[in-house]
Amino acid sequence: MTTLSYPFTESAVRALKAGEAVSIDGTVWTGRDRFHKHFADGGEIPVDFRDGALFHCGPVVVQDRSGAWRVVAAGPTTSVRENPYEPEFIAKSGVRLVIGKGGMDSRTLEACRKYGAVYLQAVGGAAALTARCVKSVPEVHFLKEWGAAEACWRFEMEDFRCVVAMDSHGTNLFAAVAESSAAQLKKLL
Amino acid sequence: MDCVSAIRELIVRTASTLPEDALAALQKARDAEEEGSSARMILETLLENAALAASSRTPMCQDTGTLTFFVPEDLRKVATREVICRAVAEATAQGALRRNTIDSVTGVSYDTNTAPGAPVIHFTDEPGRTISLIMKGGGSENMSAQFSLPDSSIAAGRDLEGCRLAILTAVQRAQGYGCAPGILGVAIGGDRATGYETAKLQLLRDLADESPDPALAALEKRVLAEANSLGIGPMGLGGKTTLLGVKIAAAPRVPASFFVTCAYLCWAARRGTISL
Question: Cβ contact (<8 Å) for B229 and A184?
Answer without folding.
Answer: yes
